[in-house]
Design brief:
The protein has 19 helices and 16 strands. It is an alpha/beta fold and 663 residues long. The protein has a six-stranded mixed sheet with strand order 8-11-12-5-13-14, sandwiched between helices. It is elongated, with a radius of gyration of 36 Å.
Amino acid sequence: MTALTPVVGAGGSYTTDAKSRPKPSSVRQAFRRFWPYVRGERRLLLLAVLLLVLSAATETVAIWTFGAIVDNALTTGDLHGFWRPACLWVVMTAVGAFASFGGGVLTSVVTERFLLRLRDAVYAHLQQLSPDFFARHDTGDLVARVTSDVEMVEQLTASGTVETISSVVTAVFYGGAALVVSWHLALTSFLLAPLFVLAARVFSKRIKAVSRDERDYNGMITTAVQESLTNLTLVQAYNQQRTEQQRLHTHGAAWMRTRVREARVSGAYTPLVDITEVTALLLVVGGGIWEISQHQLTAGGVLAFTAYLGYLYPPLRRLGALTIMVNAATASSDRITELLDTRPMVVEHPHAHVLARSDGEISVDRVSYRYPGADRPALAELSFTVRRGQLVVITGASGAGKSTIAKLLLRFADPSSGSVRLDGFDLRGVTTESLREQVTLVLQQTQVFHGTVRDNIAYGRPSASDAQIVAAAIAADAHEFISALPDGYQTVLDSAGKRLSGGQRQRLAIARAIVRDAPVLVLDEPTAGLDAGAVQRVIEPLRRLAGGRTTILISHDLSLAPAAHRILMLEHGRLVESGRHEDLLDADGPYAKLYAQHRAEANPSPTSPRLPAGPPARPTAGVLQRPGRRPGTEPVRWRIQGRLFEPEEGPSPALETGRRGGG
C-alpha cells in the first residue's frame, strides 16, 4: 500500500505519495535540530539527571543491605546482624524516594517548558506564512503537527535525554554491583545483553516508517472531522452524511492498519526481550547454586546478585524501547522540520522602513504576478494610482486577478515584477507590521473568533474603549441586533459565529474595521453571498466606513460602482478599461456589458425567461444612483434609498478607456 501525505489537491484530496517526501532525518540530525529549544533549562535537566542517578545509587546500596541481612541475620538467626543493615536500608530507600520524586518533577518541568517553547516557535512560524500556504495544506494536518507531533519531538529531545542518561547510569550501577558480587556470573549474564541492542535496532527501523504513515493519517482524520462538522448544514442539506462517514471511515481504516502494523512490530519486541531475561535469570540461578555448593558465594550474595540482575534488565529494556520510540519520533520531527523550513513568500528587509500614519496614496506600477506553478500570470503589467480618500472599484470576471491585488497591497506576496507603493514607499522596503497597520481588510467570508462580541469588534484595536466599540457598532448598523443578544456586547460567539446571520456577521466585520480606523480600506467582495435584505443593510455601513479613507472595492456586485471615483476593469490579469461609471458606459466596452448584466440580474424583466440555475435577483433599493455628471473637480453626489450623499474629498478622475497593459 502506498502511503499518502496530506497535501491538498483538487477537492481537498491527498495527492502526494511517499516517494516525494524529503529524505528522512537520522536521530542525530533530529536531536541536533531541536536541542536548542532546551536552552535555559539545561541546569534543571542536569539536576534532574543527577537526582535520578542518586535514586539508582541508593537502590544499589539497598539491595546490598538485603544480601547482608540474609547472610548476617536470616541464615544465622543473629538479631544483632539485622539492625544496622535494616536501618541503612530504610535510609537509602527514603533518600532514593525523595531523589526519584525530585528528578521526576524537574523532568516534567523541563519537558513542559520545552513543549511550550517549541509549540510557540512552530505556531509563530506558521503565522508568518502567506494565505496561499494554508490554501495548499489541510488545516487538520497542520493542527496535528502543532500538537501531537510537537509532543513526539519532546520525547525525542527533552524527556528522552533524561530517560536515556538515567537508564544508562542505572544499568552501569547495577551491572557494576553485579560484577563486584560475582564477576564470572556477571560476565555470563552480560553475554545476552547485546540481544537487547540488536532487537532495538531491528525493530526501530521498521517502526519509523510505520510511524510516519500513522502521523499523516492522523492528520487526515482531524481534517475530515473538522471540515465535516464546520460544514454540517451543507452536508445535511445535500444528504452527504454517508459520504462524509465513508470519508472518515476510509482515513480511519488506513490509520487503523498503520496502528496494527505498529502494534505488531512493537509487540514482537516484548516477547523477545522476555525470553532473553528469563534465559539470563536461569543461567544466574544455576550458576549461583553451583557457586554456593563450592562455597564461593553465599546465599545472600546469590540473592543480591539475582536482584541486581533483575534491576539491570528493566533499564536495558527501557533503552531498547527508547530506541524504538526515538526512531518513531523522528517521523514527527521530519513533519515539524518541513514546516520550520518552509520559507515565507515575503521576507522582510533587515533595515525596512517603519511607516507612520499613511496618507493613503497608492501607486501600482507595471506589476506582474504569477502564482507558483501557474501556467499564466495572475496579473500582467498592471498600472494604476489611487489618490487619498478616493473610492476605486476593481471588477471583472472570476479569475481576472482582482483578489491578487488585495494580496499584494497587504504584502501577502511580492510582485514578480514592477512595484506597489504606499505614499511613495515601495512595500518591499517597509516592515509588514507597519504596512498592515495602515490597511483594513474586509473579506467576503467574515471571520468570527471565539469570544465576546466586544472582543470581536475590538480585534483590530484591542485598546479601544467601550464607547468606541458602541460607536463603531452604531455606525455599522450593528448596535440594534447586538443589544438584542442575550448578553449584549458580552455575548460569547463561537468561531463560526452561528448565533449571527450572514449580514450580521458582515456588519460586525464593518464595525471591526471602523474601530481599527486605518487610512486604507480594502473590501474584497463584501456583499457576496448575502441575500437581498442583507445587501441592503450592508451598503449604508460600507458607505460610512469608506468615507474619508482611500478605499479599494473588489467586487462583482456593481452597486457601488456609480459612486466610485474610478473603475478598473480587469480581464485575465490585464487592465482593459479605466474611468468613471458614465464614461465607461458611454464607451460601450467590457464594463458596459458587465454593468448591463448586473442591472438585468437586479431588475429582471417580467417577460424575460428565467434560467433555473440563475443567480438570485439583487434588490434595487440598495443600488447607488448618481443623478448626474458634474464637470471638473465638482464633487460627485449619489443617491441611496432616496437620500443624497457626497464624498468627503477627491476630484473626479478623467475618462480613461482602452488602457491595456501598463497603460
